[in-house]
Known about the structure:
Layout: E1 8-10, E2 16-19, E3 24-29, E4 34-40, E5 53-55, E6 62-71, E7 76-83, H1 84-88, E8 103-107, H2 108-119, E9 124-126, E10 134-139, H3 146-155, E11 159-166, E12 175-182, E13 191-192, E14 199-205, E15 211-215, E16 225-230, E17 236-238, E18 250-254, H4 260-274, E19 277-284, E20 296-300, E21 307-320, E22 323-333
Parallel strand pairs: 9-12, 13-20, 15-18
Antiparallel strand pairs: 1-2, 1-5, 3-4, 3-21, 4-7, 5-6, 6-7, 8-10, 11-12, 14-19, 15-16, 16-17, 19-22, 20-21, 21-22
Amino acid sequence: MVNRYEFQLADRNRRELGILQNVDIDINIGNSNDFEVTILFEQWDGSIKEGYYIYSNHNEYGGIVGEFKSSTKTREIFVRGYTWRGMLGKKIIRPDPGEDYRVVKGELNEILRDLINEQYEDLFEVSGESTGVIIGSMQLDRYCTLLDGITKILDSVGYRLDIRYVTGTRWEAGYVLIGAEKIQDHSETIEYSQDGYVEFTATKNYRGINHLICLGKGELKDRKVIDLYVQEDGSIEKDRQHYKGIEEIAEIYDYSNAEEDELYKKGIEKLKNEMNSSEFKAEVDEVEEDWPIGDSISGRDYISGIEVSQPIIEKNCTVKDGEIEIEYKIGGREGQYA
Length: 338
């Protein structure tokens, strides 16, 4: 059982300075993608500086210091920054010169290497292993973030983004190792419930939108209109309505300057976020395994009968007094009666 994570500090050259002690740490992966280190005034020695690295070895928890906040009320100093995943979310993929969209093709890790090397010189290193998965050709959204672009590529073939920090030696700087990993479904074997004595909240939302009326370019009767409908199995189709009458829940999506192709694509994205969903948050303080973003696990509440078997979409890692607690958030879209 792992009940203690050691977080280390490195300088701007990623040379290890030692273990962080007497600090509380809160790291989000999957949503805000940032971290906060809390240090009492009495424990502050000025050793953490802007541009320094805070990390836990061989996992995703870490990032670069970019903000300091001091509170005389609580007598605490807060050190903040983006995580490695957060840094990928702060870079933009641009179309090639003269092209409308960026198009990628090739083996997954080769694609990741090309995209990341454009943005970062040596902090990120992409795995040299081949996944054996080849993308023939994929068009990315215009000016999407590096994180969103990579996620779209990997999602399309059932892969997820693996991120971990590799500590440097006395002579070599540390680095962030990135690679494409096949998504695993652990939902048959990993279930969080009352049986595990974990704290959790479970949500099953049946009030989601199932009919999205997308309004695009044009005026009045000449305006482009696309009707998107959620099907019983959770899929989305155009012009084929499944839920009618009292079961229909409709909403307008106004995208006034969009041509038909763009309106359809963005409408699908909008409806996926608004349709029926399930969510389960579990706080785990006895960490035997640290499940990654993208893999699926299960949650069950025996009292309400809510069951959720979905991918992990967010994690919060909290370290207090050397003890770790990880909160998993799993969730996703579902059919009307799932």
